[in-house]
Design goal:
five-stranded antiparallel beta sheet, disordered C terminus, four-stranded antiparallel beta sheet, about 230 residues, alpha+beta
Length: about 230
């Protein structure tokens, strides 16, 4: 009987001791998992904080880039009368209004028809239905070269009707880039041109925006020749 009790007690002690080791091992493993998880969460939070700190600097750098690189390019293009792409010259981008010119000296070399030009004149939708007035045109560059057309109007073909665009093929002296244009009207009907566009073989496109009725018996238009660069005719 005593021997059986001793064996039973040993078995209980053995079972009790084995369970305690397992509990210690599991507790240690849980602690290690908690520490690893805490370390990972802390590292993740730190990375997120660093990203938040870098975000204002990235936005500031983008803003500085826009101010330093975009705006100066547009400003230079506006001052030179060119679009940002550089494909055409729009002198009217300076937002000036047409002005009268009391006297315009017509050059004597108008018979030199060495270059061809395409002139497109748009008539405003608020103009008269059509005009029978005599319309003359003169344009040129900053170096004294001039193209003069005594008459553009043609009442039989109803030129310069309201809300229309008329295209003219003109031969005249070769010029550098066109920097001035003047229209002359003689008559009583009235006329309101919208735009005048001039295309030449060796010149950049020049666009002039009238958008107003032109007075009678006076040259009326634009002169941007001062400070406008011109490229030589080839």
């Amino acid at each position: 009987m005593l021997s059986n009790r001793i064996e039973t007690q040993k078995a209980k002690n053995k079972e009790g001791g084995g369970g305690g080791s397992d509990d210690i091992y599991i507790d240690t493993k849980n602690r290690m998992n908690r520490r690893a998880k805490a370390h990972f969460e802390g590292k993740k939070k730190k990375n997120y904080t660093m990203k938040l700190l870098h975000l204002p600097f990235a936005l500031l750098f983008s803003l500085i880039s826009i101010i330093c690189f975009k705006f100066p390019v547009e400003a230079v293009a506006a001052e030179s009368g060119e679009s940002v792409s550089g494909s055409s010259q729009s002198l009217a981008s300076q937002h000036r209004h047409p002005l009268p010119l009391l006297s315009l000296r017509i050059k004597s070399n108008q018979t030199a028809s060495s270059c061809s030009y395409t002139v497109i004149i748009s008539t405003s939708c608020s103009s008269v239905s059509y005009t029978r007035d005599r319309i003359s045109l003169a344009f040129g560059d900053a170096y004294g070269n001039q193209v003069y057309v005594p008459r553009l109007d043609d009442p039989s073909s109803r030129t310069f009707e309201r809300c229309s665009a008329d295209t003219f093929q003109i031969n005249g002296p070769c010029t550098y880039d066109v920097c001035y244009v003047y229209l002359y009207r003689r008559g009583y009907d009235g006329w309101k041109p919208d735009t005048v566009e001039i295309y030449g073989t060796y010149t950049r496109t020049a666009a002039f925006y009238y958008k107003t009725f032109i007075p009678s018996n006076v040259w009326y238009g634009f002169n941007y020749c001062n400070g406008v660069s011109a490229s030589p005719v080839l």
